[in-house]
Design a protein that fits this description.
The protein is an alpha+beta fold and about 130 residues long. Helices cover about 25% and strands about 50% of the residues. It has 2 helices and 10 strands. The protein has helices at about 90-105, 110-125, and strands at about 1-10, 10-20, 20-25, 30-35, 40-45, 45-50, 55-60, 65-70, 70-75, 80. The protein has a 5-stranded mixed β-sheet with strand order 2-1-9-8-5, with no helix packed on it. The two termini are about 30 Å apart.
């Protein structure tokens, strides 16, 4: 078991005593267990799975950073939402809107914004 603190733009989530955390990272899905070596990883938009004594919890996250050292973990992300906080109808509309915009868009910067919106909506919908 190890301690995890989550920081997002909406504030600090109280520490959790967890068994493992699975993260979407820039080089694939990573699972961190207790007593893992020190690591810094870039977190991608996707779903984080936290395993506790009582089961598992899933959260949609936006980009950020994860750090683990001496059985202490910090997850610093733009957004961190559990399924109770997500309006799935709104997420589906955002997904459809971003998908349509990507098909019509020619400007590279606007395409990147729409890709990010699409990924965030998909991460939320994956919790449904």
């Amino acid at each position: 078991m190890f301690d995890l603190v989550v920081l997002s733009q909406y504030g600090k989530m109280s520490p959790h005593h967890i068994k493992s955390i699975t993260l979407p990272t820039s080089d694939g899905i990573r699972t961190i267990l207790a007593r893992h070596m020190e690591v810094y990883v870039e977190v991608e938009i996707g779903v984080v799975v936290i395993h506790t004594e009582s089961g598992k919890e899933r959260f949609a996250v936006s980009e950020g950073v994860f750090h683990f050292k001496d059985n202490q973990a910090a997850l610093i992300v733009s957004t961190f939402e559990n399924e109770d906080e997500i309006d799935f109808i709104r997420a589906k509309r955002a997904y459809d809107r971003a998908k349509r915009a990507l098909q019509d868009e020619k400007d590279m910067i606007e395409m990147q914004k729409q890709e990010q919106a699409l990924k965030r909506a998909l991460a939320r919908l994956n919790l449904e």
